[in-house]
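Bench notes, afternoon.
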Amino acid sequence: MHITLRQLRAIAALHRHGSVTRAAGELNVSPPAVTLQVKALEDQLGIALVERSAGGMVLTQGGMVIADASTRIEAVLRESEARLAAIVGAERGEVRVGIISTAKYYAPRALASFSRAHPGIDLRLIVGNRDEIIDGLAHHVVDLAIMGRPPTEMKVIADEIGDHPHVVVAPPEHRLATARGIAPSELNDEVMLVREVGSGTRRLMEFYCEEAGITPRIGMQIGSNETIKQSVMAGLGISFISAHTIDAEVKDGRLAVLDITGLPIIRQWFAVHLTERAMMPASAALLGFLREQGGSFLPHAAIASLKRGGTRAI
């Protein structure tokens, strides 16, 4: 096989964009050049790799195999570049950091601090829900992930960054906003706004409700913490949410944290990477930074007024 990097990158770009024009824009070549690379690869392999659909260009089963190979080869090339940089003593390299959407309320500040201390290391951020970030780890799209509960479906190494509390929030004028020692059963009368299936917050909320023996009415399913916060402030319901996403709103008095017995639930933030992948110098530097200093960037105002005696760690 005489496959070239240009051919692999053409297929991978088509997979990402579903359009020859947009793929060409990413690769800084003309659309005919992309078509030519794909056609040459199809002729060499003897199978169709791309087909047209109503939504644009999509990869065939064979095309998906090539796209996956392209992702893995690019990861190996990045690792090789980092190894060579380490040999000559240069602090260089790229780290693709996957952060679950809840972590975007503190992780960018930590990463910015790291970048100022290590200007030669290029950080690429990939934001998604838990399932999307785990998929990125599995396919070597993500080098290091910042997330809550580490995946169990693959072998990973997880280094703890700090506590991750979860609480229930309501509008400041809510009937329970000023109450203390609220029984979980009070939530049965409330409409709960929830994250989408596949998010870690949704899984933890369902676990909490089952453990507490409560069945609040599920209102809207919302795929964004920002939209959930706005919906709660508008009076559409209450929500079980990461305390690290609501710090500003609690400080400003736009949201109230309900003092419910057994809450907050404390989990942890972790920096996660695949066991099977060698840790490159740039990734190792970031991991060490997160392990030693990551916890200092976590917001704390949202739970400062709650009684710690009600906290459960799971």
